[in-house]
């Protein structure tokens, strides 16, 4: 008929199969909580992505391991096809573990492409949205007496926003009275 069925197990769909192919996929845990994905293509181009899911890095690593064999040999430029391939291939879709792994791969592939073209990633994704970004710094908060000093130190560094705990240390199983006292 008029429609050609694409094989999801080959590069026959690629408009340019001569482009670099995915040669190697690695991931690295970085303390205290990050998981980074590194993809290397057949021309030794490298891209990095983040696949962090706090407290579940080993689960994300397991998902990356499952995806790895299918990714090797695919054209690194076929970013949307790769995303759709993983999204549509299985019965169960979505969820934080799966999406964290897929995000790490997706970001790494965009990074490889942007480096190969010598452009910032945002230029491939529709252009810049802003020219500055508000940032914050962590100042703790478990010791309320230390907050003012920590906040003033960040202000002296030029920061205008901070992130902190709202209470002193509270155990997971403390009583309702302890929780109520943090609000008073």
Structure summarized in a few sentences:
The protein is of the alpha+beta class. The chain has helices spanning 57-71, 79-89, 96-117, 121-124, 147-156, 176-183; strands spanning 22-30, 34-41, 46-50, 137-138, 162-163. 38% of the residues lie in helices and 14% in strands.
The separation of the N and C termini measures 72 Å
Proportion in helices: 25-40%
- Strand numbers in spatial order across the main sheet: 1-2-3
Query: Can you summarize the main beta sheet?
Result: 3 strands, antiparallel
Rg, nearest Å: 22 Å
Count of helical segments? 6
- What is the beta-strand fraction? 5-15%
Tell me, what's the shape?
A: elongated
Could you list the spans in which at least 5 consecutive residues all have pLDDT below 50? 1-6
**Class by alpha and beta content:** alpha+beta
Explain how this protein is built.
The chain is built from six helices and five strands. β4, α5 and β5 form a beta-alpha-beta unit. By secondary structure, the protein is of the alpha+beta class. α1 crosses α3 and α2 packs antiparallel against α3. The protein has helices at 57-71, 79-89, 96-117, 121-124, 147-156, 176-183, and strands at 22-30, 34-41, 46-50, 137-138, 162-163. The strands form two sheets. It has a three-stranded antiparallel sheet. Strands 4-5 form a two-stranded parallel ribbon.
Strand-helix topology:
Elements: E1 22-30, E2 34-41, E3 46-50, H1 57-71, H2 79-89, H3 96-117, H4 121-124, E4 137-138, H5 147-156, E5 162-163, H6 176-183
Parallel strand pairs: 4-5
Antiparallel strand pairs: 1-2, 2-3
Helix pairs in contact: 1-3, 2-3
